[in-house]
Automatic annotation (TrEMBL):
Cofactor binding, per record: Binds 1 zinc ion per subunit.
UniProt binding sites for Zn(2+): 207, 211, 217
Annotated protein name in UniProt: Metalloendopeptidase
Biased composition (Basic and acidic residues): 23-42
Named cofactor requirement(s): Zn(2+)
Active site location: 208
Organism: Austrofundulus limnaeus (Annual killifish)
Pfam families: Astacin (PF01400)
Keywords attached to this entry: Cytoplasmic vesicle, Disulfide bond, Glycoprotein, Hydrolase, Metal-binding, Metalloprotease, Protease, Signal, Zinc, Zymogen
Domain Peptidase M12A: from-to ranges: 109-308
UniProt-recorded Gene Ontology molecular function terms: metalloendopeptidase activity; zinc ion binding
Residues making up the signal peptide according to the UniProt record: 1-18
Length: 310
């Protein structure tokens, strides 16, 4: 219980540190999850302009300078990692993101985490039920991908994503501009966006669903400097805050290069070949995988939610 509580607390504290921009803009942030979108427009617009400083007005450009991400998915699938896809898909979003794909919470609610309320509650049967609704905009194939991702949690942990009946707290899965999620349980309806054009992949869905459980990005761990070098000279300056370390409780698990929560080496890069994250000591260690939950991701879910069973 205690480690869980402290982890979530630290996650939220870390978030609030990462959000000075939003804090200044979002003065009436008492809504749920999608608060302050209007207020955040100008923040995002600034960022978009900054990104276009590298000489390309095409908002769909991906970090490798390729322009065919949406046009040629099959071919790209073999060498595009999850984080690249997420960041590309979010490039045109009007939502203010933390580290690329986490919706900024109403951070004043972080205090609730002292009482564990940003975790999802466990049922008497030992399972953690997370109600969801898949928006009507999704077709059969898309539902299949999303539910397949949910199945990966169910088959390996005590987490169960269940269709909502009348529960108060639930995840509303929508296709808006980008792939993003809130962090942990926010209370009431919380939005998870999987844009139909850029986010319908099992690995991306698992990444966003893992944010729903309360997990942050691996490369912001408190001890990350022992395992990766952050190349600030290659980072788009206005996005540098995405690389701030957080004082995380790492559940006594090792740094996991293979985590589905680890960003790729060119996240927020200023240009092709200008890597922002370099593994230490072996720079060729793969990071930013796209297949789904790693074995440590699974172990951490079980630890955070004290799963006694699958
Ligand atoms: Zn993320």
């Amino acid at each position: 219980m205690a480690p869980s509580a402290s982890l979530l607390l630290l996650l939220l504290l870390g978030l609030s540190q990462a959000l000075p921009l939003l804090e200044n803009k979002d003065r009436d942030g008492e809504n749920h999850g999608d608060e302050g979108k209007d207020a955040d427009h100008d923040v995002y617009d600034d960022e978009e302009k900054q990104q276009d400083h590298d000489g390309d007005n095409n908002g769909d450009e991906d970090k490798d300078g390729n322009h065919d991400v949406y046009d040629n998915e099959e071919e790209k699938e073999d060498h595009v990692d999850i984080s690249t896809r997420i960041l590309v898909a979010n490039n045109n979003s009007d939502v203010m993101f933390v580290e690329g794909d986490m919706v900024a919470p109403t951070s004043r609610n972080a205090m609730k985490c002292y009482y564990n309320s940003c975790l999802w509650r466990k049922s008497l049967n030992g399972l953690v039920m997370i109600p969801y609704v898949i928006g009507n905009e999704f077709g059969g194939y898309e539902r299949q991908v999303i539910q397949g991702a949910m199945g990966a949690f169910a088959s390996q942990t005590c987490i169960r994503f269940i269709p909502r009946t009348n529960e108060n707290d639930f995840v509303m899965i929508v296709s808006k501009t980008g792939c993003y999620s809130a962090l942990g349980r926010t209370g009431g309806m919380q939005e998870l966006s999987l844009n139909k054009a850029g986010c319908i992949y099992g690995g991306i869905a698992q990444h966003e669903l893992n944010h729903v459980l309360g997990f942050q990005h691996e490369q912001t761990r408190s001890d990350r400097d022992y395992y990766v070098r952050i190349n600030y000279e290659n980072i788009i300056p206005s996005t540098a805050y995405n690389f701030e370390k957080h004082d995380t409780n790492n559940l006594n698990t090792p740094y996991d290069y293979s985590s589905v929560m680890h960003y790729g080496r060119d996240a927020f890069s200023i240009g092709p070949g200008r890597y922002t994250i370099t593994p230490i000591p072996n720079p060729n260690t793969p990071i930013g995988q796209r297949n789904g939950l790693s074995s440590w991701d699974i172990t951490r879910i079980k630890m955070l939610y004290s799963c006694q069973q699958r």
